[in-house]
Amino acid sequence: MSGFADLTVELDSLRQQGLYRTRKLLTSPQGAVVEVNGKQALNFCSNDYLGLANHPEVVRAFQRAVNQWGVGSGAAHLVCGHTAEHHQLEEELAAFTGRDRALLFSTGYMANIGAIAALLGRNDAVFEDKLNHASLLDGGLLTRAKFNRYRHADAEHVRQLLAEDARRKLIVTDGVFSMDGDVAPLKQLLAVAEPQQAWLMVDDAHGLGVLGKTGAGVIEHFGLTSSQVPVLVGTLGKAFGTAGAFVAGSAELIEILIHKARTFVYTTAMPAAIAAATRTSLSLLQQESWRREHLQILIRQFRAGVSQIGLQLMPSISPIQPILVGSSERALFLSEQLLQHGILVSAIRPPTVPKGSARLRVTLSAAHSEAQVQQLLQALEVVWR
Ligand SMILES: *Cc1c(COP(=O)(O)O)cnc(C)c1O
């Protein structure tokens, strides 16, 4: 009768494989402690790495801006949606990342899809790390350029693939890998890119605000210049605690994106109040370096604690500290058990990660205390047995 019977079959099959997903209902704002499904829990799964998503100053900046600008932006940036608030945020982001200019997008997903497609066409080639974020892989697949995936963090593999002929060659990588927490080998990638005049595009969604002395991310962490990494993507929904994204680079790059990135041209500008709130979080992120320092202390504490329990960590200096489990069912079971102990950690399963590598993705935040990390470690020890 209806054509949807096979959807039921598909859903049943997801359930049987331990791949069924449900959304937890939050009844509190983001923070170290959240209320989820009616119960309080310590939150170790958000990307609010600096604890800015519900920071009183960021909230006040948002409220003030709503009073000034209203809620909706009314149109795309190129029509009449580009306010002075957006413009100032772009200039501040350009200064923060040490680049000529920056361009706002409504989400990181859209920034990545738009930027890759604006830069590449039929005679070009794109080279992507196998573990890149879905938006980067989708961006690569949406272009007419030849699509290459290289083994995770394997610059030698990139070198072999780069030998092919193409007008433009773009190497695309996460700065910090979102499900593993490791940092991309940017120096090695550069060494293979330069002889081929390939460009490097880094999506630093998880490094900005967190890595580098001033929080300028993985580029600062490695001491690279903007000409070495001409295309930098940042997202605002993670360490910045707001929403949206940007691409930063040369004036020419930004002008091309303004003209050719379809996810910029054909979409409504983010609300001006979000831009205003982000300006405040950018300033907090730059001034309050204690947030980064405290985060590093928690990362060390967590890693030392986990190895004492004997669990398998991944090589990560970032606040993303996954614990490898393997089976999806067991990862889900552990996550449920942790919630019973008042700890919120998500089980990450295929297709988000490769088959057989389901994990508990623990994320730490400057909003956590050492005592809260200790609680997490104790709960992990209990449920793992
Ligand atoms: C979260 C994320 C994105 C998407 O950003 P949104 O603003 O959430 O759409 C892109 N790239 C990476 C690496 C991410 O982790």
What does this structure look like?
The chain contains 15 helices and 13 strands. With 385 residues, the protein is an alpha/beta fold. α6 links the parallel β4 (125-129) and β5. The relative contact order is 0.16. The mean pLDDT is 96. Bound molecules: pyridoxal-5'-phosphate. Pyridoxal-5'-phosphate (PLP) binds at residues 107-109, 112, 133, 135, 174, 178, 203, 205-206, 235, 237, 245. Residues 107-109, 112, 133, 135, 174, 178, 203, 205-206, 235, 237, 245 line the site of pyridoxal-5'-phosphate.
Keywords, separated by commas or semicolons:
single chain, Aspartate Aminotransferase, domain 1, Aspartate Aminotransferase, domain 2, three-stranded mixed sheet, 15 helices, 13 strands, globular, binds pyridoxal-5'-phosphate
- How many distinct domains? 2
| Structure class | alpha/beta
CATH class of the largest domain, named Alpha Beta
Strand order of the largest sheet: 3-9-8-7-6-4-5
Q: Helical content, roughly?
A: 40-55%
Largest sheet: 7 strands, mixed
Bound molecules: pyridoxal-5'-phosphate
Compute the number of helices.
15
CATH architecture of the largest domain, by name, is 3-Layer(aba) Sandwich
The sequence of SSEs as H and E is HEEHHHEHEHEHEHEHEEHHHHEHEEEH
Proportion of strand residues? 15-25%
What is the element layout, followed by pairings?
Elements: H1 5-16, E1 33-36, E2 39-43, H2 56-69, H3 77-81, H4 84-97, E3 101-105, H5 108-119, E4 125-129, H6 134-142, E5 146-150, H7 155-161, E6 169-174, H8 186-193, E7 199-203, H9 218-222, E8 231-235, E9 245-249, H10 251-260, H11 262-265, H12 272-287, H13 290-309, E10 320-326, H14 328-340, E11 343-344, E12 346-348, E13 358-363, H15 370-384
Parallel strand pairs: 2-11, 4-5, 4-6, 6-7, 7-8
Antiparallel strand pairs: 1-2, 3-9, 8-9, 10-13, 12-13
Helix pairs in contact: 2-12, 4-12, 5-6, 5-10, 7-8, 13-15
The structure holds pyridoxal-5'-phosphate.
